[in-house]
Specification:
There is one protein chain. By secondary structure, the protein is an alpha/beta fold. The protein has a single domain, classed as P-loop containing nucleotide triphosphate hydrolases (Rossmann fold), CATH 3.40.50.300. Helix content is 51%, strand content 15%. The protein contains nine helices and eight strands. Strands 2-6-1-7-8 form a five-stranded parallel beta sheet, sandwiched between helices. A three-stranded antiparallel beta sheet has the order 3-4-5, covered by helices on one side. A hairpin with a 4-residue loop joins β3 and β4. α2 packs across α3 and α3 runs parallel beside α5.
Length: 221
């Protein structure tokens, strides 16, 4: 049976970085759920559609052929490599709106579950352990203090900290208050505050949990 490691948490907590590293370390597939929402947002932008248009966004999500290659490192939308295109700032902003639409979330959850049913995966997002894979073998809620998340995002995009702080605050509010699959820590998830921890330390903390919960961890070094 496929093994699922679910990592949830707020924006800029380090989920993507640590999920990629864990997947590589374990030989699992990395699923970036955010990339899938970005792919839908990119398609909407190209079609000049309003990302808050629920009907059209759900149609795009249902029709989108989104595949992950190279163990999740490359994202293909309808056969086109959009790995770089979906990282554009305007696509990120649109994706945060697209992700609040219930029909879009339901459509992409089915695609995510299909991948997870056939492969050992590490998946990160905001509702992975609560909605996408509620029976995940390992659940982690990765967090960091607000000022640390602002610092990380500012360094990543070389942006203004005040602007980024406001953007993260707005994103947190949307994620936690949305009706469909809000960001929340599950009771059976390990809470891990990465503030002050190196990437190596975060990785080892999660690997310890993996070793403890899966086959006594003997094959996961």
């Amino acid at each position: 049976m496929a093994i699922v490691i679910a990592i949830d948490g707020p924006a800029a907590a380090g989920k993507s970085t640590i999920a990629r590293r864990l997947a590589a370390r374990l030989g699992f597939i990395y699923i970036d759920s955010g990339a899938m929402y970005r792919a839908v947002a990119l398609w909407a932008s190209r079609e000049k559609l309003d990302p808050s248009d629920r009907h059209h966004m759900e149609q795009l999500a249902l029709a989108a052929d989104i595949t992950l290659e190279d163990d999740g490192a490359r994202v293909l939308l309808n056969g086109e490599d959009v790995t770089d295109a979906i990282r554009a700032p305007e696509v990120s902003r649109a994706a945060s709106l697209v992700a609040t639409i219930p029909g879009v979330r339901r459509a992409l959850v089915e695609k995510q579950r299909a991948i997870g049913s056939q492969n050992n995966v590490v998946m990160e997002g905001r509702d992975i352990g609560s909605v996408v894979f509620p029976n995940a073998d390992v659940k982690v809620f990765l967090d960091a203090k607000t000022e640390e998340r602002v610092r990380r995002r500012a360094a990543e995009v070389n942006g203004n900290r005040e602007v980024i702080s406001q953007q993260l605050h707005e994103r947190d509010e949307r994620d936690r208050s949305r009706v469909e699959a809000p960001l929340t820590q599950q009771p059976d998830a390990l809470y891990l505050d990465s503030t002050g921890l190196s990437i190596d330390e975060v990785e080892e903390a999660i690997l310890r949990l993996v070793r403890a919960r899966i086959s006594n961890g003997k094959e996961y070094r």
